[in-house]
Amino acid sequence: LPKEYAIIVAGGKGTRMGGATPKQFLSLAGKPLILHTIEAFTSYSQDLEIILVLPDDQLDTWRSIAEKYAVGKSIQVVVGGETRFRSVRNGLQKINDGLVAIHDGVRPLVSRDIIKNGFELAQRHGAAVACVPLKDSIRLLYPGSSKSVDRSSFRLIQTPQVFSAPLIKAAYGSVEDKGITDDASVAERAGHAIHLYDGSYENIKITTPEDLMIADAFLKAKAGL
Amino acid sequence: LPKEYAIIVAGGKGTRMGGATPKQFLSLAGKPLILHTIEAFTSYSQDLEIILVLPDDQLDTWRSIAEKYAVGKSIQVVVGGETRFRSVRNGLQKINDGLVAIHDGVRPLVSRDIIKNGFELAQRHGAAVACVPLKDSIRLLYPGSSKSVDRSSFRLIQTPQVFSAPLIKAAYGSVEDKGITDDASVAERAGHAIHLYDGSYENIKITTPEDLMIADAFLKAKAGL
Questions:
Q1: Cβ atoms A139, B155 nearer than 8 A
Q2: Cβ burial, residue A44 (10 Å; 0-12/13-18/19+)
Q3: What are phi and psi of B82, to 5 degrees?
Q4: B157 vs A137, A179, A201: nearest CB
Q5: What confidence tier does A210 reach under pLDDT thresholds 50, 70, 90?
Q6: Which residue in A136, A145, A208 is closest to B158 by CB distance?
Q7: How much is the ipTM here?
Q8: pLDDT band at A140 (very low <50, low <70, confident <90, very high)
Q9: Contact present, B41 and B50 (Cβ < 8 Å)
Q10: Do the Cβ atoms of B184 and A137 come within 8 Å?
Q11: At what angle do helices B33-44 and B209-222 cross, to 10 degrees?
Q12: A88 to chain B: which residues are within 8 Å by CB?
């Protein structure tokens, strides 16, 4: 079996959350959000190697969290770059072979099945990306107006985005970072087809105070509270 | 000032919720979901005329709710059609002039401001539709593959969708219903420009058990619980 890695990207400065605490360290169901994300991956596999990408000025916070919660001995920490693109590229420098799941640090509700399916499909297809259908209608903006488009032709893209490590490393080496918002786009611009698979509506990205409340409700429901 | 109407469309049979109770009648914070939606509009204006569109076999349920909660004296009930398109068209037959907000019965968290802004902008532009930017990347599907598209060029469409009544009545009279998922598309196909304005991420459409839980969390947060 190929070696499996996860790069967990936690570059947020917390500005959209309106507070001084970076969103990956906000408290969710009694512990820092980032720990929920990490535990989703360790519960999938103890053999997985986790690379956590953090801004330089958050390393001390991480060290105290890792100590307090007795995690992190097996987690490599890598300093992020100015953009998500550069943060992921920094993380990829620690990997040479196998499969790598790239995941948003602030998607704590990812399930074991979504992680598992991602690795299996990336093994088969080279690039596998979790997604969900759109529940709402969408419109395309153009200067001065907008028009309706068929929502069934689109998917909302989540993470994990799982790749053959050599494939995604090469893509990150050759593609510029302008306007790229996810890893699938990096792989695509390097010429690779993307295999889409089912994520879940629960696998939300926490970017606003409302999202944190929603995640809390999901976790309470799971715990049967 | 023009007369203002709201058509609240509640056609759901509840299949996606996994239960026998249509989702508009599910309990949310202690009362049927549809009452939250109706109260959002009555709290905006007591002069607003509300037209509630319901499937034929749900009229009895509505009557008992209206009696129990002492609402509905001023609410006209109209029987819906086989599709959302036909349900809205049935509702529009009760209106001849002024402005009309068409709203999903299962969007109970719409704010007064979103309703107010919709009427003001529809008065100025003829057609005003609430929307939010996409938080996630999106991909466009095509046979056998998919490609990334720039999410900043798209908006997720919500309701209310507010129109000059004569404009939207004429549009619903002349456009076929195939594949149309919202009222803005009906107006657009009849040749009208759509003015988009800011909705909110809280203004969710309740279509799954998870959504109901999220709405509950939002309401508890508002109540300071």
A1: yes
A2: buried
A3: -70, -25
A4: A137
A5: confident
A6: A136
A7: 0.89
A8: very high
A9: yes
A10: yes
A11: 50
A12: none
**Cross-chain Cβ contact B148/A185 below 8 Å:** yes
Prediction pTM value: 0.88
DSSP A12: -
Name the amino acid, one letter, at B39. E
Cβ within 8 Å, pair A218-B208: no
pLDDT band at A16; cut points 50, 70, 90: low
CB atoms within 10 A of CB B81: 18
